[in-house]
């Protein structure tokens, strides 16, 4: 508004100056005004026609109808101005003879039309037109009006009031009519001023400028007395300025404003798309980029302007383009499509989700397509990870139980349809826990990875190998009968024979394999795998590192196993465990010289459960640790109680299982119990089987040394069943070797056992160790042992393991004397 006010001020000042010039009388008349007038009119006509041309041609649905009214109205004004110019005095006759009044009449008609049009335009609402066809609806009345006015002004001007009289000049009608036009223009200006206070949706300031300068122009035309004077001249100038204002208004409304809106929208679109988390491109039918956002260009390390005008094939690599082309073609054929694609961007190949949408013209014709692609590599990786987590063992990469079941169902279906056999193997690694316990879980993991690799290498493509967890694997062999299963089992066992090099240590890992056959041993996954598991357990029981086929009785055993394992967990808390004590006697004088504490479990429903049955379960489940501690503490307390009641001092022997022996702090644990219970260390003896001692002989030597230092006795149990190395035996700090009862049992019949027992006794003597024979049941066994110099005996021949009270009674009655059974008479 600032610049407009200035222009209007200058225009007003122009009028004031001209009307108050001291010499204005001397500024009379151009020598020849006609050319000047013609030029001025041509200028005004040109601008009026521009108003029409711009408004009419740019008019479209959505623009205010007032623009159309103004542009068509000014076509009429331009036509009337043209007729005014052609009628001007001095011009060749225009249809009828020219004259001053004829020119004035056209002039007044033009001014009236302009003032009326502006008034209507200013005072009516600027509402968007709804139809393009309005253009012609507005144009036709104007042309009809022009025809009517020309008919009137050219042929019937006698019907009109006089505006000029030769020799007198302008009539009062003409002057007052001009005043009327001034008033109308000023009224329009006031309307516009009022409207400018509110929210504007049209260029009211420019219209205000137009009507103000038009009013000033009219005012100047009331002042002239000669057509060539300064007022007339200036009036024409002001009229052109007024038209210029209008042209500006209409130009701004129809071209500049929409254009700036368009530019703004483009900037906005660019801003939005540049900040959108998708890569956007617009292509034409020739796959040529018309628009790309910053991030789309960034995919290829380029700027948007580098892509515009180029084809997709010029920007994308061949593979990416080949993937995208069918979707692009589909979009050009009119379908919206989406697909995943691998696009080689500047950061390398990544996975994208690409949407292609056809772009249509106003007529609905497909003119190109828009593509919006987003990087879904992270999502795809997450999906793959989830898929892998859900279906694969993360350590070995083998299918997990869930995927195994899926695949099993498929091969089972095939086997069922084709009447083919199928083998399911349950494979468990032997002593895997020991690897974990001694070398750590890292080494255990490496073993499992190596095992998985070896298993896969030995199996066919169609076979399934899966890790269930821990050291348990399932192998499914489609179309495999008993013979085939044996062949595969042997092959798998063989695969384990080269040792695994883990952390620079050579580890020999062996498998126990149980086999169940479809349909004989089961017709579904759960039954077959359960039966294969039972068969595997049988392999474990019979020495490991082998295979076994399922037999129905195994299932009962494994059910029993599970029941025992469950009940054993509660046995300690429910006080179902107790110790029995079996006397150990001196062969020399028959005195009770010690006792072996033997665990007993009386289950409320099942009665006595044999330790031979439940001790291995306790060892496998880890329950042996708390149970073993309970045994030591109970035996020690019992010993203390016997001492307190005056029973002669004798050591009590407690069996130490392999798991207990592997406990890091075994020496501390035992001395702590002895300290807490207050029993001298030498009254506890620990029995360790030969097999456990030799399993890790170096460690056994270390532990025996530390126990020996503390004064705790050690003896080797089941001697003769293992493979003792003499060099280690020498180093073992043990006081006694316990000859295994399997040699004692057949002493009477088996000369070999006689030799073995005799040898053990002599070897022990030469190593400075005592011998005790267990399982002595007959007098002849006793006689043989005595003859060969065995030191002590234990067995049913003397006594079964006894509850504490009975043992005490036995010890008291046998304690000082040689028992009859041990009397010289019984010796043969
Ligand atoms: N780790 C632990 N092992 C233990 C514990 N208590 C027992 N056991 C071991 O369980 C196995 C079976 O023991 P049990 O049924 O008690 O059998 C012992 C004796 O009853 C039996 N024995 C003794 N004399 C005779 C005999 O003349 N004839 C005959 N047939 N059997 C006899 O021998 C078993 C003692 O064996 P050993 O330990 O080798 O001296 C057995 O291996 C026990 O070791 C425990 O607390 N912890």
UniProtKB/TrEMBL annotation:
All copies of the PAS domain together span: 265-335
Q: Which residues form the EAL domain?
A: 561-815
Query: SMART domains given for it?
Result: EAL, GGDEF, PAS
Q: Which Pfam families match?
A: EAL (PF00563), GGDEF (PF00990), MASE3 (PF17159), PAS_4 (PF08448)
Report the residue ranges that make up the PAC domain in this protein. 337-388
Q: Which CDD domains match?
A: EAL, GGDEF, PAS
- Coiled-coil positions are none
Alphabetized InterPro entries for the sequence: Biofilm_reg_signaling, EAL_dom, EAL_sf, GGDEF_dom, MASE3, Nucleotide_cyclase, PAS, PAS-assoc_C
Recorded superkingdom = Bacteria
Q: Which UniProt keywords apply?
A: Membrane, Transmembrane, Transmembrane helix
Q: Where would you find the membrane-spanning parts of this chain?
A: 34-55, 67-86, 106-126, 133-155, 175-194, 206-224
| Key word Transmembrane present | yes
Q: Which residues form the GGDEF domain?
A: 420-552
Fetch the PANTHER family from UniProt: BIOFILM ARCHITECTURE MAINTENANCE PROTEIN MBAA (PTHR44757:SF2), DIGUANYLATE CYCLASE DGCP (PTHR44757)
Name by which UniProt lists this protein:
EAL domain-containing protein
């Amino acid at each position: 508004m600032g610049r407009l006010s200035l222009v209007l001020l200058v225009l007003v000042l122009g009028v004031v100056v001209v009307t108050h010039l001291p010499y204005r009388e001397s500024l009379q008349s151009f020598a020849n005004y006609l050319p000047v007038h013609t030029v001025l009119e041509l200028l005004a006509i040109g601008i009026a026609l521009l108003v029409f041309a711009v408004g009419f041609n740019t008019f479209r649905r959505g623009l205010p109808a007032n623009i159309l009214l103004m542009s068509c109205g000014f076509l009429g004004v331009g036509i009337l101005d043209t007729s005014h110019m052609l009628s001007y005095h001095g011009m060749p006759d225009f249809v009828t003879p020219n004259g001053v009044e004829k020119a004035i009449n056209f002039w007044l008609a033009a001014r009236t039309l302009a003032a009326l049009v502006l008034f209507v335009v200013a005072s009516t609402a600027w509402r968007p037109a709804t139809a393009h066809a309005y253009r012609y609806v507005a144009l036709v009345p104007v042309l009809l009006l022009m025809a009517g006015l020309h008919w009137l002004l050219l042929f019937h001007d006698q019907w009109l009031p006089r505006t000029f009289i030769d020799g007198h000049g302008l009539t009062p009608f003409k002057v007052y009519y001009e005043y009327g036009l001034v008033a109308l223009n000023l009224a329009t200006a006031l309307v516009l001023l009022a409207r400018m206070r509110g929210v504007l949706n049209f260029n009211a300031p420019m219209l205000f400028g137009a009507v103000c300068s038009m009013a000033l122009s009219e005012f100047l035309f009331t002042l002239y007395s000669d057509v060539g004077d300064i007022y007339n001249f200036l009036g024409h100038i002001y009229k052109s300025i007024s038209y210029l204002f209008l042209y500006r208004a209409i130009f701004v409304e129809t071209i500049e404003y929409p254009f700036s809106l368009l530019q703004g929208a483009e900037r906005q679109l660019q801003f939005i798309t540049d900040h959108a988390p998708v890569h956007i491109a617009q292509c034409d039918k020739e796959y040529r980029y018309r628009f790309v956002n910053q991030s789309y260009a960034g995919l290829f390390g380029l700027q948007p302007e580098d892509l515009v005008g180029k084809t997709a094939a010029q920007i994308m690599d061949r593979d990416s383009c080949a993937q995208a082309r069918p979707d692009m073609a589909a979009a050009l054929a009119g379908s919206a499509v989406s697909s995943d694609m691998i696009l080689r961007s500047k950061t390398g190949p990544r996975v994208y989700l690409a949407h292609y949408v056809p772009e249509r013209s106003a007529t609905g014709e497909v003119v190109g397509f828009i593509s919006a692609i987003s990087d879904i590599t992270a999502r795809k990786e997450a999906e793959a990870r989830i898929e892998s987590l859900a279906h694969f063992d993360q350590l070995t990469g083998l299918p997990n139980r869930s995927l195994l079941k899926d695949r099993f169902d498929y091969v089972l279906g095939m086997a069922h349809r084709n009447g083919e056999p199928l083998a399911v193997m349950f494979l468990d690694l032997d002593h895997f826990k020991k690897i974990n316990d001694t070398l750590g879980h890292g080494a255990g993991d490496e073993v499992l990875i190596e095992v998985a690799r070896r298993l896969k290498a030995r199996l066919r493509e169609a076979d399934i190998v899966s890790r269930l967890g821990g050291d348990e694997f399932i192998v499914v062999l489609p179309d495999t009968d008993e013979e085939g299963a044996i062949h595969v089992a042997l092959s798998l066992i063989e695969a384990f024979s080269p040792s695994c090099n883990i952390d620079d240590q050579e580890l020999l890992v062996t498998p126990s394999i149980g086999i169940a056959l479809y349909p004989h041993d089961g017709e579904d996954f759960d039954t077959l795998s359960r039966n294969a598991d039972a068969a595997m357990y049988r392999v474990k029981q019979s020495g490991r590192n082998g295979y076994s086929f399922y037999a129905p009785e195994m299932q009962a055993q494994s059910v029993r196993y599970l029941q025992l394992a469950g009940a054993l967990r509660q046995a300690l808390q429910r006080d179902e465990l107790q110790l029995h004590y079996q006397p150990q006697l001196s062969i020399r004088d028959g005195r009770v010289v010690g006792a072996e504490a033997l665990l007993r479990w009386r289950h409320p429903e099942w009665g006595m459960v044999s330790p031979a049955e439940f001790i291995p379960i306790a060892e496998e489940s880890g329950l042996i640790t708390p149970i073993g501690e309970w045994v030591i503490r109970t035996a020690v307390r019992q010993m203390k109680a016997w001492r307190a009641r005056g029973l002669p001092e004798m050591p009590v022997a407690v069996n130490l299982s392999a798991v207990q022996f592997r406990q890091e702090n075994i020496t501390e644990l035992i001395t702590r119990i002895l300290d807490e219970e207050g029993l001298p260390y030498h009254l506890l003896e620990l029995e360790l089987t030969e097999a456990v001692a030799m399993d890790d002989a170096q460690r056994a030597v270390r532990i025996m040394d530390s126990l020996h230092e503390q004064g705790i006795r050690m003896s080797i149990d089941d001697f003769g069943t293992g493979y003792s190395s003499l060099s280690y035996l020498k180093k073992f700090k043990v006081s006694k070797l316990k000859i295994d009862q399997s040699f004692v049992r057949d002493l009477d019949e088996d000369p070999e056992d006689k030799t073995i027992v005799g040898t053990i006794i002599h070897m022990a003597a030469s190593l400075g160790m005592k011998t005790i024979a267990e399982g002595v049941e007959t007098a002849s066994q006793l006689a043989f042992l005595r003859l060969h110099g065995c030191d002590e005996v234990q067995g049913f021949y003397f006594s079964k393991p006894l509850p504490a009270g009975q043992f005490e009674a036995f010890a008291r009655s046998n304690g000082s004397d040689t028992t009859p059974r041990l009397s010289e008479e019984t010796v043969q």
